[in-house]
Amino acid sequence: RGLHLVYELPEDTFEQHLSGMQGFDCRPQLRSEVLGHDLDLTELRARLQTLPSVKRYLTENMIQSDASLYENEPFRAFKSLNSDAAIEFRATDETLFTVPLEFERSRKSPSRMRKKLLDYYLNYDGKAVLYVCKTPQIQRELVEAERSLGKELAPKMYNAPRVEVLKPEQKVTFRRGAK
To answer: Is the pTM here over 0.85, yes or no?
Structure first.
């Protein structure tokens, strides 16, 4: 898998940096709550940023701490939904669109998974949410959770297995339903 370097600023150094940021609205992120999840997201970010259609990738910390993003509608939703990331794509017709990205590293209870999906349906107007799933079982559970929400909702969850996203080929495909 290669070597991963992790840097950490001492809290007093970080506070000194923040003192020079007066006038900026930001929320400092001093540590990760789930290190493995964040390291996986770092790998996903590095891979997705190599795709020609990806114009911008924003991490959860960027979404949560950059006040200027709050002026844009999708980012208000991403912030309240605690999206793992947001990706801005350029479509083949040159249209730009931004979608949230979620990474599911571990299994969740069906009720917790349904709640997360329902939150997206209720609080995000967009047509797509991208999910990267660590295992095929998580993919199946995601699809089942979306189906359990009812047929009256237009499906908007697209998923891809983590191993497929990380392959160095040029194309990454997110699908509705499990493979």
So the answer is: no
